Every structure is written in structure tokens, then in C-alpha cells.
Amino acid sequence: MATIYFECGSTLDSPLNTGIQRVVRKLAAELPEAAAGYGFETRFVSVRNRCYVPVQAERVIEWRNRSRSPRLQRLSLRALQVIDRTRAIISQFIPTPAWRRFINAPRYQFGMAYLICTPLRIFRQIIGLLPRSAVKSEIHDMLNTAVSPGKGDILLLADASWCDPDLWPTAARSRSAGCVVATIIYDLIPLTHPEFFVDTLVHEFESWYSNAKRHSDLFICISRTTMNTVADRLSPTEIRPGLSFFYLGSDITQRKPSTVAATRVMPNFPSLLTFIVVGTLEPRKNIGLILDAFEQLWNQGRDINLVLVGHHTWKQDALLVRIKHSPQLNKRLYWVRNVTDQGLQAAYALSEALIIASKAEGFGLPIVEAFQRGLPVICSDIPVFRELAEGKAHFFNPDRPDDLARVIDAYLDSQVVRERPRPVIPWLSWKDSAKQMADTLAELYRVHNPDNTPLGSAPSLRSDLAEDNARA
Length: 472
Hints:
Blueprint: E1 3-7, H1 9-12, H2 19-36, E2 41-48, E3 51-55, H3 57-61, H4 70-93, H5 97-104, H6 112-129, H7 138-145, E4 154-157, H8 167-176, E5 180-185, H9 189-192, H10 199-215, E6 218-221, H11 224-233, E7 242-245, H12 259-265, E8 273-278, H13 287-299, E9 304-309, H14 317-324, E10 333-336, H15 341-349, E11 353-356, H16 365-372, E12 377-380, H17 383-389, E13 394-396, H18 401-412, H19 430-448, H20 462-471
Parallel strand pairs: 1-2, 1-4, 4-5, 5-6, 6-7, 8-9, 8-11, 9-10, 11-12, 12-13
Antiparallel strand pairs: 2-3
Helix pairs in contact: 2-19, 8-10, 12-15, 13-18
């Protein structure tokens, strides 16, 4: 039986449940059943020491903040911020391109991080390979259970493994053995908008994408807009992987969340009209513009709440200071970090509308989650949001806080505020999204194994989605 090897090492023990980690977990829950309809078995693996190690599905699917306590997570994020600032300071002493490349190179390329991490990694391998080490060797156990994707198999690289030094050498070995490699492309924003990221991440992503082009047979993008961006950046003279796209799903339930879930999300929550922002606090999310608009509205006498749901990342020191010192904090401004699915459901249920002000995105999962709850959407006017929400959302200029304030003002004065219940806008479930993925992988299999095809296929759901959106 042909096997899909679903690589999910980055998400496996991640303390986060947003963005890519959320997508990986949802696909992991639904893809095995969808793929079985085409004759595929699905196995979950993680790259360790350039080997694929089997992973139990439950460990991937069920999110628990198990690897770090909230306190340790905050310390880790703070440490990463200190490292990034240190790199920036060191780069100023000798501001040459070669020096910057050395300082900011990812740990699997020659540079500062490589010189620090390589001896530690070698030491770990030596300890792990000792036959009777007093320390139980994780690497030794993994080598004994490793699997080897080969001819007739598909390797699905679905995770955010930008900085994994073993990812591509391992994938290249599997590909040389006849395995077909499919890589999910969430976006190319570190390449198209590097100003939104720290230099280290940009270098890591550049290296990751360069390897992805060389070692992938297919890029599966999460929207047509992302696929078009990838196509525009692929040189006609280089070997090009195939291109396809699918849509992410949403399974936010319609039942009313419990009071306990609601109070855990937003304790002491006043009963005012509330606008919610879902996603990490990072530069491209444009949170500062949202605060500008709400401060303008608050000064005009609008008694409304703003709730930010998501942890913070890089280049956000000024924003964090602004939030923590805001006179509206815990009065009309709330910040909630990681939440469970139930907590997110409670946050949506307590909200009047979703605001998403991103300057660049690969998809826009909060938009479709809001659609499924009948929650109005106010979003920035960028191509991928037009693709998802044309005719179904209120758009504003992401460079003008006064334009967002104007849209919110008009919304508050509209009849929509008083309409209950609100219509739910149709969207794919995660089961449907997994079927799209399985359909794409089945087609990839047929192309590379024309004489050994799996069982049948189902029609693509993209056309059905287009018809649903047209009717909506």
C-alpha cells in the first residue's frame, strides 16, 4: 500500500496552537481518513538525526501546553528577543554584507550560530550513541525505530521547519530512493516583505525555500493568491516543482460556549460591543494601526471593547510597552495569549465583529472562522482577503488608521449591529480541506506512478466552494 509520510516535527511539541501549528493539527486529524479513500496509508513522522521517526497521531493532534509552562514560554520568548537584539548590535560594528551574513546565518550554515551549536550537537550525538550510557539516549532509540520512505510513497512536508538542519538532507535521501516530495507553502512573506521579520528568520527562510525548490516535486499553496506569488517568483530557467493549491478549513462549532470557557478567555469582561483580533502579534499583523483607530474612536466617545488574541513575537517591544501602559488595558482593551479551541470559540461568541489588519498573508484563517460563526469581518484590502471575502466583508486601507476608524464608525451606525441571528457564510470544514489535500496527493501519485494507481478519486471541492461563495 502506498504511504503518505506526514512530517510534523516542529508542531509535535510546540506550546503554540495558532497559525501553522493549528493547521498541521487539523490536517493531521482529518487527512488519514480522506487519504484512505484513495488507497493511501498515512503515517506521522518527525526528522531526528536525519532519520524519519514514527510519531503517534494523538501526540500531534491533541494540543497541550505540555512542553513549557506559561512562565517558561515567556522566558524563552524574552531570550529570543535578547538574542535578536544582540545580533543587531553586533552587526552595527562591522556593517558589511559578509559580516551580517555571518552573524545572521541559521545554525545549519556557517556563521555565529553554527559555531556555537555544532559542538553541542556533536556532543549530544556522542552521548546518544554510547551503547550503555547512563543517560537514556533519545537518538539511539529513534535510530532503532526509523522508517525509510521510498518508491511509491509520498513525503508531505506540512510543518514550519524553516530552521531544521536535517530536513532537506533527509528529504533528498528519500527522494533519491523514489519517494515523491510535496511541500505545503503557507506564504513567501519573509521574501516579499523581509522588513516584517528579524534578519535571522529571513536568512533561514531564504535557505529553506531554496532547498524546497530543489528537493520538492510539488508545492501545495494555501490559496490561489499564494500560488500566484510563488509562480511569479519561480524563474523559467530553473527546475520548477509543480504548483497546486487548496483552502484551509474551519470547524468552529455553533453551540454556545460555557460560561467557564468565556471567563477563562476574558475575565471581568464588560458587556460592551466587542471587536476581536485573532493572530500572533507580529509586525505584518499591523496591530499598531488597530490601536490607533480604536484610540481615535475612544476619544470620540465610542464605548467599545478591543480584544487581542495571540502571543507576541519579534520586533514588538514598542507595541508591548504600548499595550501594557495603555489606560484602557483591562477596561476596554484586552490581551489574551494562547487559547484552546473552546476558548477561541468563546472569544468569537462574545464578539461583535472580527478585525484583521494584516499587510501580508498567505490565507486568513480567522476570516473563515468568523464566517462560520456569522461574525461580520472588517479586513485590510489585500489580494488574498479579496479572494476569500469579496462581497462578504468590510475592507479598509491597511496604511490608514483613520480609514479603519471610519469603517468601524459606519458599521456601528448600521443596521447590521442590531441584526440577530446573523447568517452563516458557507465554508469548507477541515474534513473538506483534507479531501482537497488528498485529491492533490492522489493526482501527484498518478503522475509519478502511472502504472500503479491508488483507488479512485473524488471530485475537487474547489469548484463547489466557488459556487457556494457565488451564492453567498
